[in-house]
Amino acid sequence: MKIYTRTGDKGTTSVIGARVSKDDARVEAYGTIDELNSLVGQAAAWLAERGAEGGEELLGQLLEIQQELFDCGSDLSYADPKPEQLKVEAAMTARLEEWIDRLEEGLPPLQRFILPGGSPLAAQLHVCRTVCRRAERRTVTMAASQACPEEVIRYLNRLSDYFFTAARHANSLLGAADVEYIRGANVFARRTRTE
């Protein structure tokens, strides 16, 4: 099988059920998810190569997320998606919430906003978080004018929260402190007192 097809040489590509411009909102959405998947792979490879005591669970989660991101891209590749064709389910989003809750256990409470950094792995996971937010924005843009499976949007929304928590967890595993935004007030402590 040849990798190149030459069918996209004039700026179009195939989605399932249509031929569209390569800058179509659908292509932009699943292309950004593909970019995110590559970055998750980079984080997983870092963790697999260098290791961290207690990092096996995080590595397993990242590898599963890579599979699920491919599912997201698959669901978005249908020009006219039918429920029976879709792979992303509410249970996947619910499991992300369970993982977030588990990763948060033992972490110090948030006081200030967190900047990307602390350890290389945490910084990489923050890159995943920000690209995940972009993937979500691209998917929402697509959904405004084209058919879009709603569960993909929910999954991406929860996934960015996961990456934030996973970055803090990675710092904890590696003995690095979170990098706080020191020019701001203790916003989370204040919010807790007023709620």
UniProtKB/TrEMBL annotation:
Q: Which protein family is named in the record?
A: Belongs to the Cob(I)alamin adenosyltransferase family.
Q: Keyword annotations for this protein?
A: ATP-binding, Cobalamin biosynthesis, Nucleotide-binding, Transferase
Q: What is this protein called?
A: Corrinoid adenosyltransferase
Q: Which InterPro entries match?
A: CblAdoTrfase-like, CblAdoTrfase-like_sf, PduO-typ
Molecular functions per Gene Ontology = ATP binding; corrinoid adenosyltransferase activity
Residue ranges annotated for the Cobalamin adenosyltransferase-like domain, each copy included: 3-169
What Enzyme Commission number(s) does the record list for this chain?
2.5.1.17
Q: Name one GO biological process term.
A: cobalamin biosynthetic process
Domain of life here? Bacteria
Q: Which reaction does it catalyse?
A: 2 cob(II)alamin + reduced [electron-transfer flavoprotein] + 2 ATP = 2 adenosylcob(III)alamin + 2 triphosphate + oxidized [electron-transfer flavoprotein] + 3 H(+); 2 cob(II)yrinate a,c diamide + reduced [electron-transfer flavoprotein] + 2 ATP = 2 adenosylcob(III)yrinate a,c-diamide + 2 triphosphate + oxidized [electron-transfer flavoprotein] + 3 H(+)
Q: Where does this protein act, in terms of pathway? A: Cofactor biosynthesis; adenosylcobalamin biosynthesis; adenosylcobalamin from cob(II)yrinate a,c-diamide: step 2/7
Matching entries from SUPFAM superfamilies are given as:
Cobalamin adenosyltransferase-like
* Oligomeric form and interacting partners: Homotrimer.
One short Pfam family name for this protein? Cob_adeno_trans
PANTHER family, A to Z? CORRINOID ADENOSYLTRANSFERASE, CORRINOID ADENOSYLTRANSFERASE MMAB
